[in-house]
Amino acid sequence: LAILVVLVARYFVWVDVGARCVIGIRPSLVGYDNSTVKRALETLRNGSPEDYRKVCVHVGSINPNPSCGGFGGGCFWHGQNARGRASIDVSTEHGLIWTVAIVVHETCHAIQSHEGRPPGFDYEDECYNEDHRIMRALVQFE
Amino acid sequence: VKRWGLIAVVVLLVAWGWLRAFAWFDPLSACRIHIDVELLEGDRGAIRSAIDVVRREDPLVYRALCRWVDRIREERQCDAGDPQADRRVRGGAGIPLDALDPAIRRAREAPGCYVRGSRVIVLRRAPDGGGGPALVRERAEALKRMAGYSQAFWLDRVR
Description:
A: 142 residues; alpha/beta; 6 strands; 54% helix; B: 159 residues; 5 strands
């Protein structure tokens, strides 16, 4: 039982007691996906606390799904219950920074779903700008 | 006693191999940095050589690298923005990166980058499979700079 608890805690759940944040991470076909998702959440927590808080509020589970969004992207299913915390699909195959960006992008869709947007609103435009912003903020190269 | 000694040696060798196989491992400096590379295209050896250059040339920076960086990833390039944030790109128009955001192109050409909020450095994969001393030198300089960025981020956070 102890081994099971350790494995679940290690691979299938993100727990941040201080921020009262618990996010489930679904099993992945390739095990390292889950650790990349956890590393992305850790990076957001330290690098952009405001974005991290939004993820904790609006996302309840993350599905590391390599094929979603045309291999390398993410997915948000607009049909899901708009009241509860959302489930998002995230591909991790392009490394840490893209995983962070996709988490922020799909969280943006969850926020849109929870808050509602006026008719004719460009959902993707808002969320692509969000992932662009987080990449600009976190990647330091010069 | 002899048998237990033999078992201890075997265990030590296996542990050593395990710690070193996917990482830079320097027990004398209490330094272990995981190295991620592509299964087929990657080359941990070239990254180890670059870290060794840092160790020999600049002990202070090497100490910072060991303290503030826990993972080095080799990737195709550094991405400092999402070109698809521009509607024209999503529409399929072939727009040069500079017209969108010059920082995206500069990041892609950079030898490496640091991801703020992490202890991860990304090194650009050698273009066209190139390698040799020039690549090792370029990466060593990049590692020195990125170790400084990571150190600055984490120390600023503490203050």
